[in-house]
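Moderator note: this is an archived Q&A kept for reference. The question asked for a predicted structure of one protein chain; the sequence and the answer are reproduced below.
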Amino acid sequence: MTPPALSPTQLPLPFDAGRDPARAGATYRLDALPRAERAARKTSGVLALTRRADIDAALKNRNLCTESVPAALEALAAHWRIDMPPRARCDAARVFASPSPDDGASLRFTAWETGACSPQALAALQACARSTVRSRLTLIQTRARSTFDLVQEIAQPLWPDVLAAWCGLAEQQRRRLHHLGRALQLALAPGELSAAGTQGAIDAIDELHRIFAIAYREPRNAPSMPSLFASLEAGWTPSLGPIENEIVIAGMRILLAGSAYAHALIGDLVNLLIDRRERAAELRAHPGALTLFVAKALHHTAPRQVARRIALRDTHVEGIAVREGDTVLLYAAAAECNGVWSERSDPLNLARAGASPIDGHDLGQRALELALAQMQAQAVLEVLLPCFDRIDRSTHGTTWQTRSGLKRSEHLVLRLGA
């Protein structure tokens, strides 16, 4: 049984689904909510915010904080009597640390790991991602398959494969990175972890520590790829701490960063372009516009639909009383179109400038996560666009939109014609 303090939050929908059942299904998109239905609503200790002004106020409220994943993991381990070794406990505290604008050490570390993603490094990673996607599509076609799951077969495995090449990992380590990365991602929602999931997260932290430590001590990068560890070494200063310890933490954090939004962004873009063939044709004719297209889409699609805050003490959010321990849900997808995406007929019009998005740092969207998601999405589209006129959603596949306001579907089955 899950400890009460870590039980999953029931997401209150900011509309009456019972009044219009269709809207609770495939068309749940929060960014399509009429303005009249975006008022703040509180139900059973959970406050849902959908207006940009309300969310901005919540982000500035120092009485609200993000849920502590390290503390939750420790609590779950104790509850289920799972041994959490000191090194795994220490690593979890670093890997899942919530960013704080007042923590100078945390900011220096983030700047250090982000500095490894220079424009030159991103260009090399994008080339590696393109090659990986081409190989996967070629394999699908070689096996004479008519359908493939874009998320499970291409989008989700893409970053572990690219990161493995960046780190110079051996084949067996590359394969393990897929499983270990998923285990880390599951730990980001501790309220949904079972005993097995908690054990898996702890084991993943321990195994990743060994993998990155060995890869750093025994470098084996290919000549055509940059070295993540060499880049980190070049930017390291003694004030960051012993590099042997810090570089392992950076490896795990970068694994999480590259997996945070990429598959949701890729699924959203492909789903959108299937419905808007004219936009796909424009991008094929003007490939130079692809970078701007993906950048604008990253703000519009809001891959993380909802961010969660916990009240540290009694406070008020836009006049609504919030008690200590209450949950505040920030529906970013709905807020992004409060006067920003007013032209709903064409939300990704490249000729129209959009307002700045909600502060990504405050929603946990670090610059590194956004850059890596954009790089991967662009690489996938560069490979898919030339054959896009032969791609469609499978009639028997899972559609991209689901009933969840928190995350996207795990599947997007496509049909590839001759």
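Archived answer notes: The first helix runs from residue 52 to 60.
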